Amino acid sequence: MPNKSSRQALILQLLANGPVGSQETLRNLLEQHGLETNQATISRDCRELGLIKTNTGYMLPGSLANRTAPASTPNLSDVLSVDLAANLVILRTPAGRASMVAIQIDHASYPDVVGTIAGDDTIFVATPSPTAAKRLLRTIEKELE
């Protein structure tokens, strides 16, 4: 069974093609891709991903609505701060935004990223070493400028 990150990444891919009319339509699209889920899970995913409900349906927030494929560099506009702790880079976001940013980081082409763990407003980005974490921190700080 696919995990939450995979499901949410697929939701982002589906919405990159344009708005989806309803949560039920989104559930059907996920099912067509082999992911069976329920409405409550989709509702949580929509909230965690910060999806916007418009009169045409659910959409990606901001400039993400125009994406057709995962970018090599994520949209870090929601990142409020970046810190370092050993081989981890810790990012803070507004409440409810960490998951979306973590998914973007997972799909970006950062060579030093091993993986991410997202809470509500905090992301731990694991790297293979403290040196790699420092490199990633500098890269992210440059992108935030």
Q: What integer is the average pLDDT?
A: 84
CATH class of the largest domain: Alpha Beta
State the helicity in percent bands.
Answer: 40-55%
Question: Which sequence of SSEs, written as H and E, runs from N to C?
Answer: HHHEEEEHEEH
Give an overview in words.
The chain has 2 domains: 4-66, Orthogonal Bundle (Arc Repressor Mutant, subunit A), CATH 1.10.10.10; 81-144, 2-Layer Sandwich (Gyrase A, domain 2), CATH 3.30.1360.40. The chain is an alpha+beta fold. The chain has helices spanning 4-16, 23-32, 39-48, 98-107, 130-144; strands at 52-54, 57-59, 81-85, 88-92, 115-118, 122-126. The longest helix has 15 residues, at 130-144. α2 (23-32) crosses α3 (39-48).
Notable traits:
145 residues; alpha+beta; Arc Repressor Mutant, subunit A; Gyrase A, domain 2; 2 domains; four-stranded antiparallel β-sheet; two-stranded antiparallel sheet; 5 helices; 40% helix; elongated
